[in-house]
Amino acid sequence: MRNYPSRSDMGVPVGVLRALWFGSPRSVAVQKVEGGREVARALDGGHSQTLNVAFLRTPEEVSLFVEISRESLVRRYLWLVLGDIQQVTAGDPKPRLQIDNLVTFASLITAVTNSTNRTRVDFFEIYSVTDDLPYITRKLGSWKGRGVVKLPKDDWSDRRTNLTGLHLRCVTMAQAPFTYLSEPDSQMNVEITGGYAKDVWDSLKEIHGFTYSCRMPEDLNWGSLTDGKWNGMVRELVDQKADVVVTALDHNTARAKAIDFVTGLKEVGYQMVARRPGLMEETWTSFTSELLPDAWLGTLAFVVLAPPCLTICAYFSPLETQKVTLKDAYILAIGAFAIQGSWLDVRSVSSRIVFLTIFLATLVVYAHYTSALVSLLTVTSTNTGFNSLQDLLLDESFKFGFKAGTFLEVEFKNAEHSIFKEVWEKLVAPDPSSVVANSQDGINKVVNERYIYMMEGNEFRVLFGRQCRVILVKTMYFSTQTGFALAPDSPYRKVFDTQLMRMRDGGVLSRSWHRWQPPPTLCTAPRVVALDIHHLFTAFLLLVLGLILSIVLLPCERLHWNAVGKRKLHREKLLLPLPESLRAATDPFRPQPLVRLGPGPIFVQPQRPQDFNSLRGLHDFVFNSRT
Asked: Tens digits of per-residue pLDDT, 268-280?
C-alpha cells in the first residue's frame, strides 16, 4: 500500500482514520489534490485497495467529488468521503453513485441529550440502481470516539440486492435446452417461453425485483468477430442497444474482451454429428471390408505360395506314391477356402505338414471373414470410422461445418492450434456452404451427404436425440462455460455473480438443469433386417461378371477346339491300347465266336487282321468297342 504524509492543516479527523486503520488490514493513505486530473493521476499510481479520502466541506470539494464520480473512479477504488451527506443526496449536480460504487460516507452527527451535546460519526453507503432513480441510503455503523469502527464484513454485492425500478433490455436466441422462444413480431420482439436459462433468469428477477423485455438480434447471429467488428448478440451489447444476453452464450477470450460474462450456468462442449452406420452401407466394399488391406494381401500371398510348396514336397519325397501337380495343389488351396475336402492322399510327413497348414490357415481366415460378414448383415454398427478431427482430416472424403455466427466460427477462424487451423483452411474456408444457418440444416446435410456437423452436445440430445439416423461422436472439443452476459462495464455484474454462486452452491442450478433434460432414447435396430440390392450389390456384380466372362470365353473355346482340339483328340485315339477281346481277335490260329462287347450291338469278331480294310476301320472298331 502506498502511504502519503498526513497534513493536520487539512482538518482530517485523524481519530476516524486511526479507528479505520485498526479495524481493517489496510493502511490509510491521504494526499491533497485540487482537480480531477490530479485524482486520476494519483490513483493510477496506487493500489486498488488503497483507501482514498475526500471531503465535502466546501462547494469546490463537492464539485470535485462529483467530477470524480462522473469518471467512474468511485467504482474502481475505495473511498471514504467525510462530510454532510445531504450535500450528496440533495445537491445539484448530484454525483453518479452506481450500485457498484466503493464509497463509504462518514458524517458527524451531534445529538443533544439532557442538555449535553453528544457527537458521533455515522457511516453510510449511498447508491442508485439507475441514474434516473433516487438514491438508496443505508446506514452501516457508528463510531463514538473510542475503539475501532465496526463496519459490515460482507461485500457490498451481498447487501445491494434490491433492483426495483430497473428494466433490462434483453437480447436472446433459441438454444435448447436453455431457451425456447415464441415467434418474433415485426420488431423481432420475443418472449422466452421456457428453458433452463429462463428458470434461472426468472429466479434472479424474483430475488432482485427488476423487469425485462427481450428481442432477437437483427442479423440472427450469436456473436463472431468479422473484419474487426462484432455481429449478433455481442454487437447488441457493445453498441449499448441491449443490457443483457439471456441464453447460453459461450465464454471465450475474444468475447470476454468486448463484454462482461457472469458466472456460467453450465460447462458445455462441442461434438461432431455423423450419420449412424447402417447394415453394410458401403456398396462397393460390402464383401471386402471384413478384412483390412494388409490381411487381404497376406491371404493372397498364402494362396499363391502354399500350393507350390505342396507340389515340391510331394515331388521330391520318396514316400509319395502319388505326385501332386501344381494345378491340383491350387485347386486344393482354393477349395479349402470354401471348406471343401480333398481327394489327394499324401503320405510323407513334409507333404502332410503343408497339407494341414493350408487347411488350418484357410479355416482361420474363413472363420474371421464369415463372422465379420454375419455381424455386418445382422448388427447395426455404431462405429463411424473416425473419432477425432485428426481422423477426419486423414479421411478426406467428408465435408465439415457448423452454424454460422457462433462460438465455433470464432474459435476455428482465429485458431492457433494446428489441428483447428488445418480444419478451417482445408474443410471450412474453401467451401462456404459448409457453414449452415441453423442446426436443422446441418443435420439434413449429415443425413443426405458425406458431411460432419459440429454442435453443442446438450442441444443435440434435446433436439435430435430421437433421430436415430444420426449419432453423436464421443470426442468433445472447446469445453467452456456458457450463460448470461452483460454490456461492457455493467454495474450489475457482481450482483448477479454473487446470487448465481449462491444458487449454484444451494443446488438450485442442478435441480433446474435436470428438469430440462430429455428422457434417454435408445435407437435399436429392428429384430429382422431385410436385405436389399444395395447390401448384396457386390455379390450380384460378381455373379454377373462371371456370366459375362463365360459367354465371352465360349466362342474362344469353340475356335480353340476347331483349330487344335480335334487334331489332338485324333492323335490320342490312335494311341489307345487294344482291349483284350481285340487282341484275341487278331490271333489267326484261334477261332473266335460271336461276342457282345457291352450294351451295344453284337459284333462279329474278325478272324484275321486283314479283315480290317484300313487303319481307319481299325480305329473305328477299337473306339466303338471301348465306348
From this structure: 999 999 988 764 4
Nearest by Cα to 81 from 102, 100, 96, 98: 102
CATH number at residue 338: 1.10.287
Strands 103-113 and 116-127: antiparallel
Asked if the structure places residue 73 within a domain, the reply is: yes
Q: How many domains does the chain have?
A: 3
The three three-digit cell numbers of residue 323, written as one number:
505326385
Backbone angles phi, psi at 234, to 5 degrees: -65, -40
Predicted pLDDT at 323: 80
Among 343, 378, 413, residue at a domain's last position: 378
Overall pTM > 0.70: no
Q: What's the grid cell of residue 443?
A: 443435420
Q: Is there a domain that residue 217 lies in?
A: no
pLDDT at 205: 95
Q: Give the count of alpha carbons within 13 A of 321, CB side only.
A: 3
88 within a domain of the structure (yes/no):
yes
Measured between alpha carbons, how far apart are the two ends of the chain, in Å? 124
Per-residue pLDDT, 113: 64
Give me the DSSP letters along 250-312. EP-HHHHHHSEE-S-SEEEEEEEEEEPP-SS--STTTTTTTS-HHHHHHHHHHHHHHHHHHHH
| The C-alpha cell that represents 588 in the structure block | 489267326
Report the candidate in 15, 14, 8 with the shortest Cα–Cα distance to residue 146: 15
Contact 113, 124 (CB under 8 A): no
Spatial distance between the Cα atoms of 84 and 105, rounded to a whole number of angstroms: 8
**pLDDT < 50 stretches in the chain:** 1-12, 21, 279-280, 589-590, 592, 594-598, 602-616, 618-619, 622-623, 626-627
